[in-house]
Amino acid sequence: MKRKLLVVFLFAVGFLSLCGAVMAHHGNAAYADTPTEFKNVTITKFSWANPHTLIYFDAKDARGNVVNWTCESAAPQALRLIGWTKTSFGPGDVVSITMYAAKNGNPAGRLNKVVLADGTVLHDTQLGGDGGGKTRYDPDAEPKKK
Amino acid sequence: MRNPVFKLFVAFLVVPALSSIALAQGRGSRTVPPGFVAEGVPKMPNPPGPAPKRDLSGAWVGPQSYKLGPAAPMTPAGEAQFKERHAYLPNGLRLDNGELPPSNDPFITCDPLGFPRNLLAHAISMRGGMLFGSAPNRILIAYEQQRVWREIWTDGRALPKQVDVKGAPDSRYYGFSVGHWEDDYTFVIDTTGLDERPWIDEVGHPQSSSAKIQERYTRVDQYNMKLTVTVDDPKFYTKPWTAMTADLYWMKNQEFSESFCIPSEGIEYRDSLTKPSGIKVVK
Fold this sequence. Notes:
heterodimer, A: 146 residues, B: alpha+beta, two-stranded antiparallel sheet, 4 helices, globular
């Protein structure tokens, strides 16, 4: 049964790549309602992938231990339209990440925005707005911020 | 189907699809910025030049401003097929109270979209590319999603009268196609011999291997093309019907990106993000 489910999943997620720019509307209830900012964290991996782009980074917890976080953003097709590329950042880059962390306390969540070392701001599409409360990023309505 | 893991999988499929189509229908879409005809589709200099004669070659983006169906009433055989199909959009693009129905849409299993569904879903983001090119005696059409292609024979050959019977060719996901110029600006493609597994649309309408699908591409000017797709399938429908009308627009940079279903990326997403996050989207 488990094997069958895995097969279903494998194929299922592939479908998401077809959904393009607006494929990310799932499961935000699992994430906190207010974002957390992680300043000057180090990227360990950047998966420019479907169904969702994943950003892995190391950040220190309250006791000084390094924790590897996983942060999802939209699909590449969507992010390209708002200025992202596959090489926007990569392992070793120090950035600041604002994200909606998982309520269950695990080191995972949904991106709000990444601020690169040169000040460039890369928003998430779905929860990338600056209006608070998990607002959607709307480049036409919000002035771009450095 | 009550397994929560399975529900999660299904949910991942359904909501994005709904969202995509919602945007495609014009609900919730963002303002189109200046210099664009649609999000991500740069506007060409105006005014467009005249349409070149008997020439569709180049990369086009779309479908833009499309309309689907409505499908004709089905025959009992068509109804029987349709009953077996569980769409992720059973209520006509509406998600009721966050409930996400299980679906056996072939999309879910990353099966080939097949023709004619790929005309819509190759570009479900509304920014997909389709490239018209040529080879001896045929026109080639390549699609961005999954990088699939079709060949449209223009040498006057006949379409197969049957498929999947002794002495006849096997059916195909993208069928057998022939094309001709109706006039200097309208290219007509007739297709048959389709594999019956793909769905015609998101709702799950069936197509028989003997269906005759006609596409009419009319180049309006240098940058605009109109498409009409009709379905004539007496086995499954009581009368012919228009499956889609859409506009295609000239792709400014003439280059489109790759877009694939990649199961390994899905596995990474599941293991790295959704499991740790405890995402629950279905009750």
